[in-house]
Amino acid sequence: MFENAFNNIDRVLRNDEGISSELDYAEQTSWVLFLKYLDDLEAERQDDAELKGEGYTPILEAPYRWQAWAAPKTNGKLDHNAAKTGEDLIDYVNRELFPYLKKFRVASDDPDTLEYKIGEIFSEIVNKFRSGYTLRDTLEIIDGLNFNSQAAKHELSDLYESRIKRMGNAGRNGGEYYTPRPLIRAMIKVVEPQIGETIYDGACGSAGFLCEAFEYLKRDDLSAKDWDTLQRKTFYGQEKKSLAYVLGIMNMILHGIDTPSIRHTNTLTENVMDIRERDRHDIVLANPPFGGGERKEVQQNFPIKSGETAYLFLQHFMRKLRAGGRGAIVIKNTFLSNTDGASVALRKELLETCNLHTVLDCPGGTFQGAGVKTVVLFFEKGSKTRSVWYYQLDPGRNLGKTNPLNDADLEEFVTLQMELEDSPQSWSVPVGSLDKATWDLSVKNPNAPEAEALRSPEQIIEDMLARDVETAHILEDIRGML
């Protein structure tokens, strides 16, 4: 049912001239889904209050609730006479609904409340529907979905993930929001989060790391206390970009986290020297954006100045970890060997303040459309690195859109990493053997078969001439036979 609904929404959106890309599809579907989710949540809270003999005041005032404008019903069926459509619907959304919802950000000063998130989302999102008839069709399809069961949320979350993945494959900007889920799951298995620990992603995008960590930790036999801890005191994220922030909120809600602790802010504007113990977390999981180039005033927040965004994030994450905390961070593989001052200084700091115990070398094509090779750094805060264990991932095929990374590709890595075992794909390097001038951590597999030496240009020319003579003799023989 849900898959048909999403397919129908896609067909409807194609008819609206204001919605032209996969990013638009995801964004516009998200705000409508969010308001339907909010309506179902309000109804559930009201029912709970009535069962307890208590009163309940809805977050949204009556004229702005879903049942008043999106799906007014009579005898359980949509009342087409009461339902706005065409220009009336677009005018209502743009001039009344969105301005009303934006005010919640001012009314609430706690960014972790649902009220604040309503205001944040609708301060950043712009309604791109131009046709009220298209919007009316979309509203009617989404009104048929319900968020009142975990089974429904699970199916919806899978569909929503597929939409985010499709958006990520559509281009570079979309790709910023999507990290392959098999890679995320492998990273989580290595850091082994436990209930009671806090998990943080300061560049959370569509919240893939936080959602997968939730899936890893949740169980049917959790106590009420553990479930509350998982819901309210475990997952924390920050995201700079408006669309990614909205996608992250909606993604976590669909996975079953009712009030996601994601803040809409530029993480790098925080001075890392101001981070206190109360701000730190047990686990950091992230794939920070690379390149970009931050402004000079932003770079002043870090002891190692760099125009490379990922280097600033790595410094932030190292300081966000508590002593004994674990990190797993995706970064460009050039970080391991670049000779510029920032790269060398950052490698030195990482090795001297953390135990960089594992480096996972990912093959090209792991991140579709990115055009760069990446590694994953696994480290623990608080003790120096003595030895680094490398694993060179080789799925035995070229990765691409039709042949992406899967969980089976990473099984051997996860298994061998438990004991840091050597294999044809894995090996260890003692820090004592590194060049202290560069701290070069390049991936150089000593177990790989030696490549054949390349022929010199002179040898290549000589071989070509010999082959030409041989070809000429063969042709003469053929002509003789004719």
Descriptive notes:
The chain has 3 domains: 2-148, Ferritin (Up-down Bundle), CATH 1.20.1260; 158-433, Vaccinia Virus protein VP39 (Rossmann fold), CATH 3.40.50; 453-482. A hairpin with a 2-residue loop joins strand 1 (73-74) and strand 2. Helix 2 packs across helix 7, helix 8 (150-169) runs antiparallel to helix 13 (242-255) and helix 10 runs parallel beside helix 17. Strands 5-4-3-6-7-9-8-10-11 form a 9-stranded mixed β-sheet. A two-stranded antiparallel sheet has the order 1-2. The longest helix has 30 residues, at 22-51. With 482 residues, the protein is an alpha/beta fold. The model has no long low-confidence stretch (mean pLDDT 90). The chain has helices at residues 2-13, 22-51, 66-69, 86-102, 104-107, 114-124, 132-143, 150-169, 172-175, 181-191, 208-217, 224-232, 242-255, 296-299, 309-320, 341-353, 411-417, 457-481, and strands at 73-74, 77-78, 199-201, 235-239, 262-264, 281-286, 321-332, 354-361, 374-381, 387-392, 426-430. It is globular, with a radius of gyration of 27 Å.
Give a short account of the largest sheet: 9 strands, mixed
How much is the average pLDDT? 90
Could you give me the name of the CATH homologous superfamily of the largest domain?
A: Vaccinia Virus protein VP39
Radius of gyration over alpha carbons?
A: 27 Å
Order of helices and strands: HHHEEHHHHHHHEHHEHEEHHEHEEEHEH
The tally of helices reads: 18
The proportion of residues in beta strands is 5-15%
- Inertia-based shape: globular
Number of domains: 3
Count the strands? 11
CATH class membership of the largest domain: Alpha Beta
Query: From the helix content, strand content and strand pairing, which structural class follows?
Result: alpha/beta
CATH architecture of the largest domain, please? 3-Layer(aba) Sandwich
Low-confidence stretches: none
